[in-house]
Specification:
Structural class of chain A: alpha/beta
CATH topology of the largest domain in chain A: Nucleotidyltransferase, domain 5
Distance between the termini of chain A: 15 Å
Number of strands of chain A: 15
Number of helices of chain A: 13
Shape of chain A: globular
Helix content of chain A: 25-40%
Order of helices and strands of chain A: HHHEEEEEHEEEEHEHEEEHHHHEHEHH
Oligomer: homodimer
Strand order of the largest sheet of chain A: 5-4-3-6-10
């Protein structure tokens, strides 16, 4: 299944060579997977290759699917992806979730997930589970949001409100996993993924797995000190990255009213507004200083800027790149190791949905035998 | 072997319960290990426990042993440890290795390792390999020092000069592994280990393994920016941690001549010299700022201060602790999560020696069958 998911060696013979089993064994396995609806045949392989042409195989476009849901500060969204990671249904609703009672938020989200689930079922897909992305810290049970300051939530049992086979995960982590799984990078397995909505979060992927830290708090790039005597941060410290490059700080320094949001800032930058350009340049430099520390400590292959930040990349990245070049001198750090995500704002939601269905790739036998598949292939 | 190395369940029955094999199987294995000289019996277990008293078992104090060697800027050292990690022979020589021709350094080191190896053999030990600690970057072959700026070395084939079964490893990494293996901490598997001789290095241990980064450069704490507009660093950037807390900067700011070294600084601090105390306080604060970033990013269980830095702990640590408390606010960071190593300066050398013999713990069968044991159990 993994060989096929990677889109390589897509005939029975190719898979056999890839995984080191005999052609006969692979044929038996493939027949089982075809019968279970996990694979589909796509006709004869293109001519020109040596030997008898094989039948091209691919992951099924029907069969198991994953539901993703996202709770943002100002929106809710849900989608379904198939085994290939392709989005098959999607819905979104603007919402003012800050300090809104959690039950109301969750009831509305449950409606959205029910809607996309039904739509997916009508298209012949079989959703196996739901992963909810939240801008906060998730408990070890993978069901409770311990703390989401920007929503005003503490100890909210999110999974329980959304039915069976639901897990909850931090949005920065899902953004990073989406980049790993669906970002279209070749062999990118060790990277720092930076994203931001209101706060600035990062997630670390190490050897193709999410790095969570000893207590699950890893990736707090927003509170890395940039200037130790800088402005007071909401966390109580001074000069954290968020006081320079967090959304609120950025909008204020650009002279854009907070209520108008990042879209207004992007517009101002595109129109060449000097205050906006200066604010973005300075935020980029602060981000570059904090990332220099991260790169010196972690030695990742790349830094990926994703989420809403990616929309501001043209104006943010020059400062980031300059600081990295000046401060990471002791190794091969190349300008092209700073990458903008191609997934954009949808990365988190797609990562959530795909993580719900990845367990089937990891363990097709459970699916075939009809045993319960628990969503959340979150370890990459 | 691991159950016995941990010093737990030290009878055959205890080991059986621990590893989930039958008493009979464990007895057979134990007899083989006894015959091979890897274990020894230590008489009846202390009374008072339930059931028939078993015979206490322990790792052999004779049998396989590991050789460690250390190339410092101003000294060379070698030692041998047994399977238990106990130092059995040790020798050290002051040396002025900065810019001294590498062949001369290596010839002298080979003499020291030959001396401790002979002494160990005479004590009935059988050294299985040598690990050399160097203050520099080591190639993927684990034999070549790619770059050691403080020695003035580039591309020096260290292992080849020291005979068969030799590997080379960065000193900061070995210091961290020593802390993991021999530091006497209970269940400490995720930590940042800070050490310094001339530069400031850190090594990250994650889930009980060294974290090397994508290209082997992880842990460059010395070049994490503390004040982005601070003093020019030797690396070309401004305000790196090393410009505040590196040995040279620290001695200068304390008004101690570089040639007199850290011992003179320690003496001045002990005598209450105001310049020395202020310099150490400021270096501690800078270290605390850099470590705050590391803790926010990595969420380790602990930060361990080891190596020569540990000798300055009484004066450095208050500043470190204060900055961590002020800047790591978003999680449970407790003052006692900042730990001073109990291994002191010898950590690196002991880590080197123990890593040479750990492969026998990991794979006793190869030892018993007489197949070549390659030193370097460096993955923890």
């Amino acid at each position: 299944m993994r060989a096929l998911a990677a889109g390589e060696k897509v005939t029975r013979a190719g898979v056999a060579a890839e995984v080191g089993l005999t052609r006969a064994t692979v044929s038996t396995l493939v027949d089982e997977l075809l019968a279970a609806g996990l694979l589909e045949e796509r006709g004869a392989q293109r001519p020109g290759t040596v030997g008898r042409p094989g039948t091209a195989l691919g992951l099924s476009a029907t069969g198991p699917a994953g539901v993703g849901a996202e709770i943002g500060v100002d929106h809710l969204a849900a989608c379904v992806v198939d085994l290939r990671g392709t989005v098959r249904c999607r819905t979104e609703a603007p919402a003012a979730n800050r300090d809104r009672p959690a039950p109301a938020v969750l009831a509305e989200l449950a409606e959205l997930t029910a809607r996309v689930t039904k739509e997916a079922q009508e298209a012949g897909l079989r959703p196996v589970g739901t992963t909810v992305a939240v801008p906060g810290l998730v408990g070890r049970d993978r069901g409770t949001v311990l703390r989401a300051p920007n929503l005003g939530w503490e100890d909210v049992p999110v999974a329980a409100a959304l039915g069976a086979n639901t897990v909850v995960e931090n949005e920065a982590n899902l953004g990073a996993l989406a980049e790993l799984w669906l970002g279209g990078h070749d062999r990118l397995a060790d990277f720092v993924h930076v994203s931001a909505e209101i706060g600035i979060g990062a997630a670390l992927v190490v050897e193709g797995r999410l790095f969570r830290g000893a207590r699950g708090f890893a990736g707090e790039l927003g509170h890395v000190p940039v200037r130790p005597d800088g402005p007071l941060c909401s966390c109580g410290a001074h000069g954290c990255l968020e006081t320079y490059a967090g959304e609120e700080a950025l909008l204020r320094s650009a002279g854009v009213a907070t209520a108008r949001g990042p879209a207004a800032l992007r517009k101002a930058a595109r129109e060449g507004d000097p205050a906006a350009l200066r604010a973005l340049e300075e935020a980029g430099a602060a981000l570059g200083i904090a990332l220099s520390g991260a790169v010196n400590l972690l030695d990742p292959q790349a830094v990926v800027v994703g989420g809403p930040l990616a929309d501001l990349a043209p104006w943010l990245l020059p400062g980031v790149r300059r600081e990295l070049a000046a401060r990471v001198t002791d190794r091969q750090w190349r300008p092209e190791d700073l990458v903008t995500s191609r997934l954009g704002r949808d990365g988190v939601l797609r990562g959530a949905a795909y993580s719900s269905v990845r367990t089937v790739l990891d363990d097709p036998a459970s699916w075939i035998n009809g045993s319960a598949v628990t969503p959340g292939g979150l370890e990459g």
